[in-house]
Design goal:
The protein is of the alpha/beta class and about 240 residues long. It contains 7 helices and 7 strands, in the order βαβαβαβαβαβααβ. It has a single domain, classed as 3-Layer(aba) Sandwich (Rossmann fold), CATH 3.40.50.
C-alpha cells in the first residue's frame, strides 16, 4: 500500500515523539489524525500539515476516556475513511520512590501508558482490520531495565512489551505490530515529574547522555511502517550513544 493511500492516527500528538511522528508520516504522504488533550497544540499542527492534497485533522482526545476515543475513531472513519496506522504514543513518566505519596501518579501512569494504549487499540481495531495495517506501540528502554525510582513506569513499559508480543502473534498477518523502545529522548517527559530529587536526577541523566531528538524516533517509526507488506519490524531498541542502561 502506498503511503499516499494511508491514514495514520497518533496519540499524544501535541508534542515530542507524537508531534515529530505526525510530521514524518505526513511528509511521507499519509493523512494524519492528531489525538491529544491540548487542543491548541494539535490545531496548530493540523494547520501546518494539511494542504497540497494531504489531510490532517485535530481531535481533542483523552486516552483514559473510552468515550473520547470512540468519538475520535468515528471522526477518523467519517472524515478520513478509517485508520491504517495507529501509533500509541501517549504516555507519562512520573518517576519517584514507590510510596503512598504517589498513589494518584501510579494510577495515572497505568491508565495512560498501558490501559490507554489498550483501549485505543481496541477502539480502532475494526478499522485496522480492513486492510494491511500497522500498530506501533511506543514503549521504553524501561521495558527492559528496571531501576530504583522507576518501578511503576517500568511496570507499564514491561506490560506494553508483553502485550505487544502477544498481539503480534494474534493479529498477524493482517496487522503488523511493532514496539519501539527509546532510551533518553529530549521531550517534555521529564517536565511532569513532581518528585524533585527524581526530576533533577532524570534531567541530569538526559543531559549527561546527550538525549536524542524526537525526530530520530519519528524517522524509525516512519521507516518501520513504510516497509513492504511482506516485511515486519517487530521490535526496535534505540538509545543515545552515551546511554549505558
Amino acid at each position: 500500500m502506498s503511503a499516499n493511500d494511508r491514514v495514520a492516527v497518533i496519540t499524544g500528538a501535541s508534542s515530542g515523539i507524537g508531534e515529530a511522528t505526525a510530521r514524518a508520516l505526513a511528509r511521507d504522504g499519509m493523512d494524519v489524525a492528531l489525538l491529544a488533550r491540548r487542543r491548541d497544540k494539535i490545531d496548530a499542527l493540523a494547520s501546518e500539515l494539511g494542504g497540497d492534497g494531504r489531510r490532517a485533522i485535530a481531535i481533542e482526545t483523552d486516552v483514559t476516556d473510552r468515550d473520547s476515543l470512540l468519538a475520535a475513531a468515528q471522526r477518523v472513519k467519517d472524515e478520513l475513511g478509517g485508520a491504517d496506522v495507529l501509533v500509541n504514543n501517549a504516555g507519562q513518566m512520573l518517576l519517584a520512590p514507590f510510596s503512598s505519596d504517589q498513589v494518584q501518579e501510579t494510577r495515572r501512569m497505568i491508565e495512560i501508558n498501558l490501559l490507554g494504549a489498550m483501549v485505543a487499540t481496541e477502539v480502532f481495531l475494526e478499522q485496522l482490520r480492513d486492510g494491511p495495517s500497522d500498530l506501533v506501540n511506543i514503549s521504553s528502554v524501561a521495558g527492559r531495565t528496571a531501576r530504583p525510582g522507576n518501578s511503576v513506569y517500568a511496570a507499564t513499559k514491561w506490560g506494553m512489551n508483553g502485550w505487544s508480543e502477544a498481539l503480534r502473534q494474534e493479529l498477524a498477518p493482517e496487522i503488523r505490530v511493532s514496539v519501539i523502545e527509546p532510551g533518553a529522548v529530549a521531550t517534555e517527559l521529564t517536565d511532569h515529574i513532581t518528585d524533585e530529587e527524581a526530576k533533577q536526577g532524570a534531567e541530569q541523566m538526559y543531559q549527561d547522555v546527550d538525549a536524542i531528538s524526537p525526530d530520530e524516533i519519528a524517522e524509525i517509526i516512519a521507516f518501520t511502517v513504510g516497509r513492504p507488506d511482506g516485511v515486519a519490524i517487530n521490535e526496535v531498541l534505540v538509545r543515545p550513544r552515551g546511554q549505558a542502561f
